[in-house]
Amino acid sequence: MVFARLANELDSEDIFLWRNDPVTRDSFFNSSKISWEEHIDWFKQKLISPSSKIIILEHDKNKIGVVRYDKEDSFYLVSINTNPAHRGTGLSSEMLICSENLIDKGIEPINLKANILKENLISKRTFIKAGYEFLSEEDTFLCYTKS
After folding, report:
1. Which of 90, 98, 138 is nearest to 114 (CA)?
2. For 36-87, what is each residue's pLDDT tens digit?
3. Structure pTM?
């Protein structure tokens, strides 16, 4: 069973290491390696931002990944990153679904949106399995949505 919780400062190093993993970087829009200083600034801003949620997912007391939600207009932009040590476990879709429980839903329905690089077939399957549907195609990415 996957457990979701809000990230805290103690999660910063893990997220930094996962983000700079070479395989992970290949699936990001910005595939360049980031510095510790850049990461710390970004992470602190995300933790205090009322429009962002960083959620850590755990399985058997191990951190298996992170899902981030950034509020933009009428939707949340969703990003997922699996701990490299837990790739291929088949838990990514469950990570997405479980993390949704920590989003501030308010009284209006929430709309989720994920932009996925066209060549990232694993992410495409992950989001579809979690209930996302194809919305549109751009030059380099596909957009999926879930209400």
Report:
1. 138
2. 999 999 999 999 999 999 999 999 999 999 999 999 988 999 999 999 999 9
3. 0.93
Distance between alpha carbon 97 and the CA centroid of its chain, in Å? Answer: 11
Torsion-angle region of residue 15: left (phi > 0), alpha (psi -120 to 50) or beta? alpha
Question: In the chain, at which residue ranges do the beta strands (DSSP E only) sit?
Answer: 2-6, 52-59, 62-72, 75-82, 112-117, 133-137, 141-146
Q: What share of the chain is helix, strand, coil (3-state, %, to 5)?
A: 35, 35, 30
- The CA distance from 91 to 75, in Å, is 24
Distance CA 43, CA 38 (A): 9
